[in-house]
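Collaborator request, handled under Task 6.
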Amino acid sequence: MRRFFQQLFHSFPIQLLLLHLRSNLLLLSLWMVLLLMMSGSLGRRLGLQYLFLDPEYLGEVNFLSFYIVGLALGGFFMSWNLTTYLLTAQYFPFLASLTRPFSKFSVNNLLLPLAFGGFYLLLIGYFQDHYQEMPLAENAWHLLALMLGSLTLVIGYSVYFNFTNRDISYYQRKRLPPNQVSLHITPGHRRADLDYLKLDRNRLKVWTYLGENLRPRLVRSVAHYESRLLLNIFKQNHLNALALQLISMMLLLVLGYLVDWEIFRIPAGASIIILFSLLIAFIGALTYWFAAWRAFVIILLLFGINYITSFGIFNHPSAAYGLNYEGERAVYSYDRLQEICYEDQVNKDLAATQQILTTRVGLMDTGEEKPKIVFLCASGGGLKAATWSTHVLQKADSLSSGRLFDHTVLMTGASGGMLGMAYQRELYRLNKENRNQVYKREYLDRISLDLLNSIAFTLVANDIFVPWRRFEYGGHNYFRDRGYVLEEQLNENTEGILDRPLAAYRQEEINGEVPLLYLSPAIVNDGRQMIISPQGVSFMMLPPVGFEQPKAYEIDAVDFRWLLGAQGADSLRFLTALRMNATYPYVLPTVHLPTQPTITLVDAGFRDNYGIQSATRFIQVYQDWIKENTSGVVLVQITSSERIESIPASDASGIVESLFNPLGIAGKVLDVQELQHDNTLSFIHDLLGPEHFELIRFIYRPTNEKKLEASVSFHLTQQEKQDVLEALALPANKESMRRLLGSLNGVE
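Structure tokens returned to the collaborator:
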């Protein structure tokens, strides 16, 4: 038994794995991160695990979608083998004496890929069986597709190396002169002398290795081989591996040019795996060329890339399509913001918006002298929020016989929630003569269609390799990036009805044909809100009392059209405005505006994830008009996440964890917002009086047996979608619907 364990310990697969643990921890960390994402331990709330466990291609989860992920996984495995062969082959000189050394290296390097692949298959099988309730045959079919995809790539690589790699028999036939090559492995910093390594007492002790037939074989001594012979084999194999990795990168570059074609938008999970394959190749190349200096070189590269990309020729910031970036830039300073707050423009905007309210209320055919008016506030939360807000609005408007939309004067919110709101408003505008069209299930299905596959693939294939590609919109040229692809995919999903300039909505809002809609992305530079509307909204830049007491209160919002009027604010693509309002960092690029200094915008959720701040300020500004011309306000809050969550304990943390514990509140931005919003809503309640203000909340809560909440992502599985739709039948939401219908129909 002792002899068996000794042989096992000195076998090539075990010694290779130990060498990875000793020398390649950075590469191994990539496996760990990918595994954590697949299992849901990392990014569960964002739904990252579903991208791997339920991949979608061309709108469907099927054999082909799993096969494509399998291809990416096979590429990941081979990238690992190629990279580790470059880094470790010289520690095992006996490889050079074998036929097809890379093939045998790959077979013996299978422990990690096999364990990883096996665990991944178990995760998929368990998820599809327990959460998707998929039939066993279909589940097995998908698992087979994944394995076939992986094998396809592995076999393809094997065939390539079989025809291009040279082994010892080739060089023995050639009989190269001994002075043709150096006796040292290049590059110079890796001076591993093969005359030293090939001696049995000096190399890593390996007694056995596995052949291609998986049978163990004894390792033969290579001390009798000339060093130049072994060196030639390793050099040629290394160059071949580097060439194949370069070809793979060139293929991705080509695919980056094809991203506009739907057929090339591969599953997001496959794109992420490809990205990790590139990271393995990149880190491996740095280690191969710079060895112990790799950490320093990586840091130097980061600083160098940051410096180089600060120059215009290499800097490709994401733009707001429709704006002019070529002419004079708008001055953004606090002094300039203060200027407008104490000019006649504020009074003009106040009067213009009041007239819009009067016109809108005048069109409400209720038979009441003073009707109720509705404010709709939708939270962020990716496609979950978009689907939830769409579903709630469709159902409530249908049950109220169209009264909900007819009584709505303002829509506000963040991220995904506003995608659903804007889509419903547009459907309302297009189908006023046939309101039943707005309630079609087709529209609910369309707003929940995947957006993430195209984003993820563009990040890998375009933003990394071909970020200089351009397109034209409104007479201006802009760089293509994943922000552009999101807009195009959303435009495709919604059949192009949202592809209008911002100004196209101005007259329709003035005529009272559609409710006002405010988008409010956050400004990264100073944390203020950017209020985007086709109307003048300078009165939203300060609390009302601030206009009466100059400089006593700080400006906390900016009128987009006022600031960027000279840069073409009216020509802003409405899809871009929606994208800026939903710019979750890293998933989408932050948008740079043509200002001096340049300001950037991110998701509205960082300031107001529920739209409450914008709605309550609007109510505060027009409180007198509301009291005089309406019978009260109904504020409908449509939120895609639980408001009151369980309180986590913090008394069982160790000394290291406790160092970070005080920073935990930084991750509770939304919870802090909810507390502040409740305080603001109570203020509005007192301001208008209980008879003139009613707050109605529709809250998504999971309805499935496992109480798994749908993810905050631009991808929604069919099971998650069904869970979101069924949440409206929860007792709390049924009660909210009853109250809403009662308010709209004048029933207490």
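The cover message to the collaborator said: "Residues 176-202, 660-666 have pLDDT under 50 and may be disordered. The longest strand covers residues 632-639. Please let us know whether this matches your experimental observations."
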